[in-house]
Amino acid sequence: MLQDYDRKVLYKQVWSEPALSVAKGYGYSSVWLGKVCRLLNVPVPPRGYWTRVQSGGKGRKPPLPVLRMKPESTVT
């Protein structure tokens, strides 16, 4: 299945809930989500990020880098 993905929306989603939850919302696996994020140059939280947040810690959220591809910010 092909779908359009907005980088800004995807970035916001992966930093607001675990990747497995975001991937389920799209109907795919977290491995698939990781591949899409790499393709779109969307940073994802490191391992242990959500555990740290749940225990009261703060995690660093890097800014969304510039996409080096010339097309729009959506990929099909």
What does this structure look like?
The chain has 76 residues and is mainly alpha-helical. The chain has helices at residues 7-14, 19-26, 30-39, 49-54, and strands at residues 5-6, 74-75. Strands 1-2 form a two-stranded antiparallel ribbon. The longest helix has 10 residues, at 30-39. It is globular. The relative contact order is 0.22. The mean pLDDT is 86.
SSE blueprint:
Elements (H helix, E strand, L loop, with lengths): L4 E2 H8 L4 H8 L3 H10 L9 H6 L19 E2 L1
Antiparallel strand pairs: 1-2
Helix pairs in contact: 2-3
Report the major sheet.
2 strands, antiparallel
The parts where pLDDT drops under 50 for at least 5 residues are: none
SSE run: EHHHHE
- Count of discrete alpha- or pi-helical segments spanning 4 or more residues: 4
Mean pLDDT: 86
User: Which range best describes the helical content: under 10%, 10-25%, 25-40%, 40-55%, 55-70% or over 70%?
Assistant: 40-55%
Could you give the order of strands across the largest sheet? 1-2
Give the overall silhouette: globular
How many beta strands in the DSSP annotation?
2
Sheet/helix structural class: mainly alpha
For the CA atoms, what is the radius of gyration? Answer: 13 Å
Query: Which band does the percent of strand residues land in?
Result: 5-15%
Distance between the termini: 9 Å
